[in-house]
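tool_call: predict_structure(chain=1)
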Amino acid sequence: MDAQRSAAPVVREDRLHYTPYPGSVRLARRRAARLVTEWGHGSIADDVALTVSELAGNALLHGCLPGRYFRVHLMLTTSALRIEVTDPRGERQPRQREVADGEMYGRGLLIVDHLAARWGVIPHTVGKTVWAELPLG
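tool_result:
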């Protein structure tokens, strides 16, 4: 267990690799919302879907390489739902930025920051994991 992960035990989890295509973000978002609802936390399903969509979209746009998958890992604990999205490009670290009113992109991490109790990045030898924890209830 890494130092950034909650000490609460994992009750349920799901992990799936996705191909680096735009349709994969939609599939990851729908799967996450369905699983969270099945796990008894439908009240946060929309927030989970939006967070997965933003993190997976960032992985697709900024972190994927041809022929390399990105992974979405959901972990339900007694106090939070942790979302981890891992991609192969560790040299491209996510960062929040100022966005002008007319810009169409660049708000993903602002949305994640608003929805999540906390979020961060775990660098790996190859790649990185961007994670967010949404509180239950």
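agent: The longest strand covers residues 10-18. Proceeding to next step.
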